[in-house]
Amino acid sequence: MAQETRPKPVSIAYVRTAPPAQVAPPMTAHGPLRWIKENLFSSWFNGLLTLLVIALLLWIVPPLLRFLVIDAVWSGADRTACLPSQEHPEVGACWAFVREWFSFFIYGPYPVDERWRVDLFFVLLAFGTGWMLWLNAPRRDLGALFFFVALPILTVLLLRGFPLLGLPIVDTTKWGGLFVTLIVAAVGIVVSLPIGVLLALGRRSDMPAVKLVSTLFIEFVRGVPLITVLFMASVMLPLFVPPALSPDKLVRALIGIALFSSAYMAEVVRAGLQSIPKGQYEAAQALGLGYWRTLALVVLPQALTVTIPNIVNSFIALFKDTTLVFIVGIFDFLRTIEIARIDPRWATPVTSFTGYAFAALFYFVACHLMSRYARGIERRRSAAERR
Amino acid sequence: MDEAVENSRSTDALAASDAVEIIGLHKWFGDFHVLVDINLRVARGERIVICGPSGSGKSTLIRCVNALETYQRGEVIVDGVLLTHDLKRVDEIRREVGMVFQQFNLFPHLTVMENCTLAPIHVRKMPRKEAEAVAMHYLTRVRIPEQAQKYPAQLSGGQQQRVAIARALCMNPKIMMFDEPTSSLDPEMVKEVLDTMVALALDGMTMLVVTHEMGFARQVADRVVFMDEGQIIEINEPEAFFSAPQHERTRAFLGQILAR
């Protein structure tokens, strides 16, 4: 009875007899107008945001451009060039000042006749860094040997001097400027990664003593400001070693920076280690790879890859933190600008702004390059995973 | 332990000894008694299938054989070597015991080929060329030589598990252990993995297999071990095990699993 009241289904079973035709994807309209509508004004809120951003750009960019480029003074012998005058009522950045002091920014008080040594150091550093950063470069093992062993030795011999080879000693008190900033940053970056990895492993170790020491170190160093660490390295280190062996002021600052960045790196690496599933350790162990080989061949390559963005983030922070070494009397790049900007020969209302703008530009370019490189690596990685 | 027995274990005369000998094994996870007085001998060339409800301790048992788990009482003797906490010995044993996991556990940052050659090169100190030839041999045996240069993520689950089998075989192990090798595979991929395992069994490999695939047990097992609540309830040849299970818990388990 119930059956008769129900409408009969057209078909219950279905079997395809012919394959469906493959159809090209539907054509969507292209063109800039379409893009603008879809991305900038898709809703009233999005449209409002777009207008706000445009207003903000209009407010910031033109004055900045006028100061840095349009009203800027590009050449001149002294402060008079950068003072407001009849022809130039509005004076922008005084690039003439930067031009005159430029070599001081690069070399600091390093003796003029010996500056070729710093130039050679720049070339060697660029060569080594390029070899390391170019992932498809030939013989990267040799490159690593050059970068981590030969380059530090060459740098010390070259910059500090080696009388036997006719290179007079240049004391580190005469070092300064950009190349000191690069040395401090490079040492911090190169030393912090391996020590950070060891500390991270130590903190996850099964051995209570190793774990305790690593944890104490990391928590202590992370718990105090960099300035404190620098002061401690600078003031307290000489108390522990005999005066004859007391390290150079720059070396003490380098040790402080390296310790500080290692503690941060340890936490970054630890996060990466935690992201590796237990099965990876087990599979490696089941194959008979011991603890160190499991780490070196299976765990660390994966852990470091996932932490690349965070590692580079730490490097960028470290690069900017190197400016703090001026507090223990190191003449870094920013310090040279601090000295130059109070030069009475260039005393104008815009000199300080110009000096700081130049410093900002330098740090921005350096950090931006680092972050671009990291993005490139990430893209490469995700491409490799999709392959 | 008897000194004579200890000595004889290190001699070649014992090459004919059991592949795995488990004597009075107990294990606790905290207060929980996971393995209760396990006694099991696996002869060379013997295929043993271990089954039982989940949480019965099957996986824990085979993980004790290659020291992925520690145990608190009893003895595990693998290939004539007593398993102790000595790390050197542990690695020695792990080299001879291949293991295949439920989750494959391939190394995602390495190609299939590199997965297979990693341990032979770094543990067995085999030259790269030779290791690659060995890897190709086993990849061919599991019928995926053409995938050698791909990364694990590009393969299907069944293919990944076959790579995992090839990776273990590349170490030329004396014993192969499988921990629910088909449990995380889509149904249509189970067969390709089981076929690989059957082929391996026909070659005379000593195998310890934890699985719910009763068809596989019937086909290749020399003995079937049924575990429940950390104990071995019943051991029998497959014919007798399936047609006339002795213990009432075995019957209940088989009733459930075969009804599916």
Q: What gap, in angstroms, lies between the N and C termini of chain A?
A: 61 Å
| CATH fold field value of the domain at 170-386 in chain A | MetI-like fold
> What Rg of chain A, in angstroms, do the CA atoms define?
30 Å
Largest β-sheet summary of chain B: 6 strands, mixed
Q: What is the oligomeric state here?
A: heterodimer
Give the helix/strand class of chain A: mainly alpha
Greatest interface (CB-CB under 8 A), with counts per chain = A-B, 22 and 29 residues
List SSEs of chain A in N-to-C order.
Answer: HHHHHHHHHHHHHH
- Which CATH architecture of the domain at 170-386 in chain A? Orthogonal Bundle
pLDDT < 50 stretches of chain A: none
Question: What does the model show?
Answer:
The complex is a heterodimer of chains A (387) and B (260). By secondary structure, chain A is mainly α. Helix content of chain A is 67%, strand content 0%. Chain A contains 14 helices and no strands. Chain A has helices spanning 2-5, 32-39, 44-70, 95-107, 115-133, 140-160, 178-203, 208-223, 226-240, 249-274, 278-286, 291-321, 333-340, 351-386. The longest helix of chain A has 36 residues, at 351-386. Chain A is extended. The model of chain A has no long low-confidence stretch (mean pLDDT 87). Chain B is of the alpha/beta class and 260 residues long. Helix content of chain B is 40%, strand content 23%. Chain B has helices spanning 3-9, 58-65, 87-96, 112-122, 128-141, 157-169, 187-202, 214-220, 238-243, 248-259; strands spanning 20-29, 32-42, 47-51, 73-78, 81-82, 97-100, 175-179, 206-210, 223-228, 231-236. Chain B has a 6-stranded mixed beta sheet, sandwiched between helices. The longest helix of chain B has 16 residues, at 187-202. The termini of chain B are far apart. The model of chain B is unreliable at 1-15 (pLDDT under 50). At the A-B interface, helix 11 and helix 12 of A face helix 3, strand 6, helix 4 and helix 6 of B.
